[in-house]
Amino acid sequence: MAKISYGQLFSILLATRIFSFTSTQVEFSTEQMLGMLISTLIQGLLLIPTFILYSNPKFSLNRDIFLGKYSVVMYSFCFIIWGAHSFTKFWNVTKSVYIPLKSELLVSILIVIVCVYVASLGLKAIARGSAIVFGITILSVIILVFGAYRNIDWLNILPVSDYKSIGEYALYDFSASGEIAAIFILLSYIGENKIRGVLLFLGGKTLYILSISVIGVVVLGRVMGIVKFPFFSLVAFSQPFSIQRADTIYVILYTLVGVISITIQSVITADLLKILIPKIKFASIISVIIMMFIAWGITNLSIDLSWIYNTLIIITAFLIPLLTLISQKKNAGGVMQNET
Amino acid sequence: MKLNSILCIILTSSVLTCCTSCSGDRIEVRDRSFVEAIGIGSVNPYKITAQIYNKEEIVSVDGEGETIAAAINNAEDNQSKAFSIGHIQLLVLNPQSIENGISLFLESNRVSPNCLAVLSKYDACDVVEKIDSEEIVRLIDNNSRKGQIFKKTLCEAYDDYLGAGRTVALPVIIASNRLLMGIVMPSGTLEILNEEETRGLCWLNSSAEQSIITFDYHNKTINYIVENCNSTILPKIVDGNLFLTIQIKSKGFVYEADEINAHIKHSIAQKIEKIVKSTVEKTVYELNADVIQIDKYAQKYQPKFYEVNKDNWEEVLENCTINYEISVE
In DSSP terms, which residues pair with B90 in a beta bridge? Predict the structure, then answer.
């Protein structure tokens, strides 16, 4: 099994979250930031069973997972749905944001080819690539701050006016955080400092989302309410040069995090499919193609699947690890009784 | 490994053919007209004039349509090349076209973010047709740097428009080499401020750096050069009405004296107050126009009052009391 470091885990998870955050159509506001903080806190709590399981060096995912292959099926389903969700987000953005290709189909085909290629290289390649993407992310934030500081108006940060909406924003952030479902599986690929990587990710994503949201609010002000994709409007209005535009760096970043987000789901799905069907070939390619077809269905039928995402996240990130933990404790108790 | 090689070849060739100029639908640079400025003139139907980048002379093309987008399309059809509007640096507007003009460019996401919005006393199309847009941009930059006006990008102008007062303050082209600030009222009429009111507006928007204040002191005319200025508004609610304290802090130097003594400071503060008061009298009390972000301060510091009164903002401005605190260093 390919092993990756905790730093690589951090950058993979962060890239995945950056992708869903930059694709968001939810306007940035004080309520949205508070909602995100609440959601992150809940995510941290939901991950506690996973942390307990992986803090035991004897824990093996393949051997100890609750309900064995049934859980593996559930995770595979979750990642396929999540990958499809990523595809739909990508298509939505490419419809509104200027990408220098006229045909949406061509954009999709190119992205699928890239995803299939990267997925065929395996987790290790994605992990190395995500570290580079992390560097590009930092660079893009620096350029963003540099371009935005002239347009900053701190008056735009307003106190909370609608407390009820904080819950809605928390729910939205939670349903956009599919990557926490992958943590339970991805931790099995990590050698040391498993929990540190996840904690770093939770802190890093909070910092990233908070800083971009604050910049968005202070730069866009009331215009935030009329724009379709706040992140792309923010970067369009935070240019470091007077005439020459620097949007390309953000489009490149968006494509890269998009590719990582989709391929990581397909690579994990491929590994899980191999557990279910050991003789399966081209599993990652098959999973990408399935994802794309589901995405096509979601887009054309305009289905709102947020409640499915929320349910899947709770089941895969919390319920299965919790039941695994309980069954492990029971087994350990049984062994102790047998020994006495 | 073999599959990887095949995928790698497909990917590289796809990128080379699709993302470069090799595919059939690409437009070469020489086949593009780079639009530098657009003037939106009359409405119903919309008439626009686009100024196209050309080193030697002013090249402009007109278009007409039921919407601004249709008018731009028509202008593109009236010449031989494809329009590129991503680098546009100036949008000249008539007061009636403010909402549609700015929102179209903002929503399209393809206009240059630092594109400046400016009003014209005359027909916006005529301005774009006759005056080099780079000259106008330079004039705006220069006047803005010296605290005579303050420039606004499309985003900032639309942010004003979305405020409770729905009024926008923008530079107005008075003549080919002269700018003042003007206010577009919710009714679409344009109110042009005089020179002193324009300067006051700059002070109230913390944009008076590098401006000069002259005043008489001991029978001598003295020049105070502003190095730094900062304006804030503190809103309070007194007897159900808005009570505003405008605080202006200024730092600068006087050519005619080595240091600014208390008397000079007092004289400068009085002069600044006089300038600022004239602007407030005109904008807040006479026009009931909120061009100094009173709504934003109220929303931030008196949110309950703002929520209740945001739909009657003109009435709020009419009944508000304003106090001044000017400090000079």
Answer: B37, B116
Residue pLDDT, tens place only, B137-193 = 999 999 998 888 999 988 888 888 888 888 999 999 988 788 999 999 988 888 999
Q: In degrees rounded to 5, what are phi and psi of residue A242?
A: -70, -45
Which chain B residues touch A93 with a CB distance below 8 Å?
Answer: none
Return the residue of A nearest to B7 by Cα.
A117
* Tokens found for residue B17: 């053919």
Q: Own/partner pairs for B133-138, CB < 8 Å, 24+ apart?
A: B133/B36, B133/B37, B133/B51, B133/B89, B133/B90, B134/B36, B134/B89, B135/B176, B136/B37, B136/B90, B136/B92, B136/B173, B137/B89, B137/B90
Which residues are CB-neighbours of B112 under 8 A, at least 6 positions away?
A239, A243, A245, B86, B87, B88, B89
pTM of structure: 0.86
Q: Quote the mean pLDDT of chain B.
A: 86
Other C-beta atoms within 10 Å of B251: how many? 14
Cβ-defined contact of B86 to A245 (cutoff 8 Å) = yes
Distance (Å, whole) CA A116 – CA B4: 10
Sorted by sequence, the CB contacts under 8 Å of residue A221 that are 6+ apart come out as: A153, A156, B155, B159
The answer to whether residue B113 neighbours chain A at the CB level (below 8 Å) is: yes
ipTM of the complex: 0.80
All residues of chain A having their beta carbon less than 8 Å from the beta carbon of residue B165 are none
Q: DSSP strand E in chain B: where? A: 32-40, 46-52, 59-65, 82-84, 90-93, 116-120, 168-175, 178-184, 190-192, 212-217, 220-238, 241-254, 321-328
Rounded (10°) angle between helices A123-148 and A194-220: 30
Put simply, the answer to whether B114 touches A239 (Cβ < 8 Å) is yes
Q: Is A281 on the interface with B (CB under 8 A)?
A: no
Work out the minimum CA distance from B263 to partner chain A, whole angstroms: 34
**Considering only alpha carbons, which residue of chain B is nearest residue A224?**
B159
Reduced to 3 states (helix: H, G, I; strand: E, B; else coil), residue B205 is coil
Residue recorded with tokens 């070939």: A281
Q: Which of A113, A158, A161 is facing B10, going by the closest CB pair?
A: A113
> What are the C-alpha distances in Å from B215 to residues A23, B91, B224, B261, B271?
56, 37, 8, 14, 7
Sign, Cα dihedral of A152, A154, A160, A162 = negative
What does the alpha-carbon distance between residue B160 and residue B145 come to, in Å, rounded to a whole number? 21
